[in-house]
Structures are given as structure tokens and as C-alpha cells.
Amino acid sequence: MTTLTLKNCRPLAGPATDLHITDGLFTETAAPGAEVVDCGGRILIPGLIEAHTHLDKSLLGLPWYRNEVGPRLIDKITNEREVKVSLGLDPQVQSERHAILAMSHGCTHIRSHVDVDTHHGLAGIEGVMATREKLAGMIDIEIVAFPQSGQMTRPGTAELMDEALAMGAELVGGIDPCGMERDPKGHLDTIFGLAAKHGKPIDIHLHERDALGWFSMEEIIARTEALGMQGMVSISHAFCLGAVDRAQVEVLHRKLAENRIHILTTAPASAPVPVVKELKAHGILTGAGCDGIRDTWGPWGNSDMLEKAAHIGMRNNLRRDDEVELALEICTRGGAAILGIEGYGLEIGCAADCVLVEGETLAEAVAIHAPRKLALKGGRVIARDGACVIEAP
To answer: How far apart (Å, rounded) are the C-alpha atoms in residues 53 and 50?
Structure first.
């Protein structure tokens, strides 16, 4: 492996120092013949963690898609399932394009929800797995088998989910037990049953708001507790935690903390969002992701988790420097803890997954989210000056 010395860098905006990398790990001393990289006094942070996205769906590199889809969630889901065919979308090519864009911004790990349905079968899973293998050593990709079109409403999907997990998908996905599935007991029994069968964690999309979302969240918490799955369940979006009734949300916060259920936010502009300072106060692990980018749902997003930290800051009214640093923590250490990444950080013995960012302080780095000067994965350069070292297909 490459041996490097990162000269004149500032770990987490601290004093300037030299950091040494040997065989992909941070070490106390430089290896003989190590290449010296002058960091110019820039801040060094651990690799950015994209903990909620959809690699199989992006339209990057394809002709412009004219979006005339209705406003409801089911409208977007139905349209996307059908349009994938007319567009000739190849999940391997699209996931590779998406992952390379993330790498260009200093992302070193991705958790991707990948659609499993009776229309497309396991094509998305197979495509993203091929990309994962192709980019091995440059970025780590964790796959959630995701029944976006529903399980209870589309018989045969549960069996496909079972097959996807047997193939190597790392997590069981779920979606709105009431709003999408119309059968909360059936849906949650199915996904928790698959998790128990395969010994794998769960990550559930919960878009449901207010009382409906609270009900579904209570049911998720109850199953987590009953089945002893503390620390193995994540809830993505969790819009219901952004509700006006903070007393009810406080009850849910306590139950989430007791059962070590994690929250993954995408900080959208169009929905209530979990209050990250409250999650932090309760010790609830929180990560973040860019969700779908430039897809049939909308034209936005560039897979930059430093920019996403800024979005979290704006949606949560984070203004003090220490508050903005919390947004960055969510996009780094928070996501890493939820993904269970071992050896994450800048300490001696940690994997040399790291990014040079511009700015005098961490808060400024988030606020300006300038192109990254350098990004490393296991000590290997994956991006320079905001561009990935490999070209997208």
C-alpha cells in the first residue's frame, strides 16, 4: 500500500502537525521512502459518511428528465418504477456514476437503499453489488434491500427480499407501515422476521408525520425491545420527530434512546425534521445522507456530505460554531457509528480514510463547503481538487 506523510495538516482544525500513513493506517512514525504531501495548513477530517442514499436511481449522465410527476409519495414511487424501463436505466452504471461523484467530495463509506420489487426483481441489487466490487478499496458500499413499492401491497416482494439478503445485502429495509403498506402489523412482522432469519440489522424509511408516524414509531420500538434488537435498528427520515407537539416527541426520544434506535436524517426543505440537538442530548446516534440525487423525484443534489452538513445546520437553525460542528459530526462520526465502521478517525491505528477541507475552523469548512483538496481511502488517493481520480462511465 501507499505510504504517505501528510505534512502541515490540522486534524479537526487543531494545531498544524504531520501525520504518517503506512499500509493504510495512521502510524506514529513515517515509513522509509514515504511520499510527502504538503497540506498547506488545511483542516483534516475523517472521511465523510453517506448514510442514506439510493445508488440505483440517479439519472447522472443521462439526458435531462422532464419531471411532471404528481405530488404524492405513491405518485413518485409508481412513476419511478415504470420510468426505469423507458429510460433504460442500468443500475450498475448509474450506481457507479453516483458513487464516483460522492468520492470526489471525500465520501469514503455509503449506505445505499436499493429497490427490490416484483417489477424489476433483483436487478438493482445485482447492479449495485457489481459497482461495490468494481470500486472495492476506493469506497465501501453497504446495501439495504429496500421494498420501496411495498411488500404487503405487492405479493412476492418479501420472497425477493429474502433472496437479496441471502445474496449479501447487509440490511433489511422497510417503508411506511401505515401510509404505504396499509398493514403495519404485516409489514413490521415481515421485516423483523427477515432480520431475525438472516441475523441482519434494519433501516426503515418513515415518512409518516405527526400521530400516524408516532404510532408506527411506537410499533417499531416495541418490536425492537421484544426481540432484543437494541442497537440494530435505524429509522430514516423520521419526520414525525419534527412535530409541533414536543411533549409527545420527548416521550419517543426517551424510548428511542432506551432501545438504542438510530436516526438518519436527510434534512429536506419540504418536511419537518428531527431536532438534532435534542437527539444529541438523549444520546441517540444520528447520521445523515443526501437521499436520492438528480433522479425522477427531483433534479437536486450532488452527493456532497459537507454540503449536507450545511443543510442540517440550516434546517435546525444551527448558528454557533459548536452547533455547526454538531452537523459535521453527524456527517462523519455519527454515520460511522451507525454503520459500525471499525477503526474510524484520525488517531494512531485508525484507517487512513480522511479529507482535506478548506477553512480556518470546522464551522467555516461546513459553511463554505469548498471543493476538497485531497481525499484518501485507506491511505490511497481517491480525489484531488474536487475530482475523483477515476472517470465515471
So the answer is: 7
Q: pLDDT, tens digit, for every residue of 300-330?
A: 999 999 999 999 999 999 999 999 999 999 9
Query: Does the 48-339 domain belong in CATH 3.90.1740.10?
Result: no
**Neighbour-count burial for 65-97, b at 16+ CB within 10 Å, e otherwise:** eeeebeeebeebbebbbebbeeeebbbbbbbbb
**Inter-residue contact 104 to 387 (CB < 8 Å):** yes
Beta bridge pairs of residue 114? 145
In CATH terms, the fold of domain 4-46+345-388 is Urease, subunit C; domain 1 (2.30.40)
- Chain-centroid distance of CA 307 in Å reads 13
CB 325 within 8 A of CB 43: no
Average pLDDT over every residue of 142-163: 97
Q: Evaluate whether 392 touches 95 at the Cβ level (below 8 Å).
A: no
Whole-model pTM: value is 0.97
Residues shown for the chain: 393
Asked if residues 303 and 290 have their Cβ atoms less than 8 Å apart, the reply is yes
Check residue 61 and give left, alpha or beta (phi > 0: left; psi -120 to 50: alpha): left
What are the extents of the domains in the chain? 4-46+345-388, 48-339
Coil, helix or strand for 15?
Answer: coil
